[in-house]
Specification:
The protein is α+β, with helices and mostly antiparallel strands and about 230 residues long. About 20% of the residues lie in helices and about 35% in strands. The protein has five helices and eleven strands. The protein has an eight-stranded mixed beta sheet. The chain has a three-stranded antiparallel beta sheet with strand order 1-2-3. Helix 4 links the parallel strand 9 and strand 10. The chain is globular.
Length: about 230
């Protein structure tokens, strides 16, 4: 199996193990870090193990190889086909395209509330109170307000995911996403790793940007957000 197959499971068993909660054949991130979870395989025992990690009413987000099929004790809250894209070289944006007056700021715990606000508005994917602990997150501010960001999320041996790429609607079109991604990718590349990401299959504009930065489509995965129901 490739490290990027069942990537949440692999991340929680390797480089993201410090954030993992486990039960039987299931793993999840600590809830304040991320709602992402996984199991060794999508069997009834996998779902039973996952159930042991959640209270009734709790939700998790899974990346599945095939579309979700109904399981007893679970309700499907949301779903979407995603593309997993891999960057083999990833030089990112040329330095000439980076506007000198754009200062990149490393984000951390003190910025968590602003990061959650921006991701709630732009919806690049789930972002929680402690998601910033998963890796380096960079942001751009205008008039003191965080208007764009990007960072690192899932990590497996040899690969790091570029995630939470988002720009406030009032600042779209200024190249902020390209600049931020290029810097995140540079850091990943300097560690001797390759960048990958996940994007909704219908997000044509984002996919076009990612292809310009060197990403290529590797696989199709299916996001399923599930809620645990009373037994």
């Amino acid at each position: 199996m490739h490290a990027l197959d069942n990537v949440i499971w692999n991340a929680l068993g390797t480089r993201d193990a410090e954030f993992a909660e486990s039960s039987g054949s299931a793993r999840r991130f600590a809830p304040e870090v991320s709602p992402l979870a996984a199991f060794r395989e999508p069997s009834s025992s996998g779902y039973d193990s996952l159930s042991g990690l959640l209270p009734v009413g709790g939700t998790v987000a899974l990346f599945l190889a095939d579309p979700y099929e109904g399981q007893a004790g679970w309700s499907l809250i949301a779903k979407a086909p995603l593309l997993q894209m891999l960057c083999e070289n990833g030089k990112g944006a040329p330095s000439s395209s980076i506007t000198p007056e754009v200062a990149l700021e490393q984000l951390g715990a003190a910025d968590s509330e602003e990061m959650i606000t921006l991701t709630a508005l732009t919806k690049p994917g789930p972002f929680s109170k402690r998601t910033h602990e998963l890796g380096t997150y960079l942001g751009i501010r205008r008039s003191g307000r965080l208007v764009a960001m990007a960072g690192e999320r899932l990590k497996v041996p040899g690969y790091t995911e570029v995630s939470a790429v988002c720009t406030h609607p009032e600042h779209v079109g200024r190249g902020y996403a390209r600049v931020l991604m290029s810097e995140v990718m540079r850091s990943i590349r300097e560690r001797g790793e390759r960048s990958f990401l996940h994007v909704r299959e219908d997000n044509v504009g984002a996919i076009g940007l990612y292809e310009k930065l060197g990403f290529r489509r590797r696989a199709r995965v299916h996001l399923a957000v599930l809620r645990k129901e009373p037994s």
